[in-house]
């Protein structure tokens, strides 16, 4: 049985070693930067499929509790994991293979600007974009409720 934490980069700062020391139980932090509610829900259901969960904690931040924050970069990898033959036709896998064969460097996670420019952009552009449009995430709320009902039916703890 596993105790897991799910969420975005803010939840990723929770140290599982502190939980182990305080609660005496092993815990895994499966949070990842930029996670959206659809990605968090997908990670929960995939984890539930792989192992018996005992405790689940889901961190939901204000900036992701928005119907407009709908990105789901986890859907395709989960689809490929369910059907390994799809790995051969996955576009990103082909791009990485070409990059490796050509000896190139993956720069996709580099911001392409100086540290000062990056933070100015984060404060002036990304911050406004995060909160410029807002709609109550009824669909995502329903997904979180479904996860909560599932946790209760399986009689394992959850917090959200």
Give structural notes.
This protein is α/β, with parallel strands linked by helices. The chain has one domain (2-159). It has helices at 9-12, 16-23, 37-50, 75-82, 91-102, 115-132, 138-154, and strands at 2-6, 28-29, 53-58, 157-159. The mean pLDDT is 87.
Keywords:
4-stranded parallel β-sheet, 160 residues, alpha/beta, 10% strand, 4 strands, 7 helices
Computed over alpha carbons, the radius of gyration is 18 Å
Secondary-structure-derived class = alpha/beta
The largest sheet has its strands arranged as 2-1-3-4
Percentage of residues in strands: 5-15%
Biggest β-sheet, characterized?
Answer: 4 strands, parallel
Mean pLDDT: 87
Summarize this entry quickly.
The protein is 51% helix and 10% strand. The protein is built from seven helices and four strands; from the N terminus they run βααβαβααααβ. The chain has helices at residues 9-12, 16-23, 37-50, 75-82, 91-102, 115-132, 138-154, and strands at 2-6, 28-29, 53-58, 157-159.
């Amino acid at each position: 049985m596993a105790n897991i934490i799910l969420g975005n980069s803010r939840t990723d700062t929770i140290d599982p070693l502190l939980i182990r020391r305080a609660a005496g139980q092993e815990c895994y932090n499966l949070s990842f930067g930029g996670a959206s509610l659809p990605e968090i829900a997908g990670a929960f259901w995939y984890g539930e499929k792989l192992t018996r969960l005992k405790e689940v904690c889901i961190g939901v931040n204000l900036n992701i509790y928005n119907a407009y924050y709908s990105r789901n970069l986890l859907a395709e990898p989960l689809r490929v994991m369910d059907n390994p033959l799809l790995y051969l036709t996955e576009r990103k896998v082909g791009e990485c293979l070409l990059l490796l064969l050509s000896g190139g460097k993956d720069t996709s996670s580099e911001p392409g600007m100086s540290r000062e420019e990056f933070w100015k952009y984060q404060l002036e552009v990304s911050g406004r974009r995060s909160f410029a449009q807002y709609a109550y995430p009824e669909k995502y709320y329903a997904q979180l409720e479904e996860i909560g009902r599932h946790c209760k039916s399986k009689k394992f703890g959850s917090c959200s």
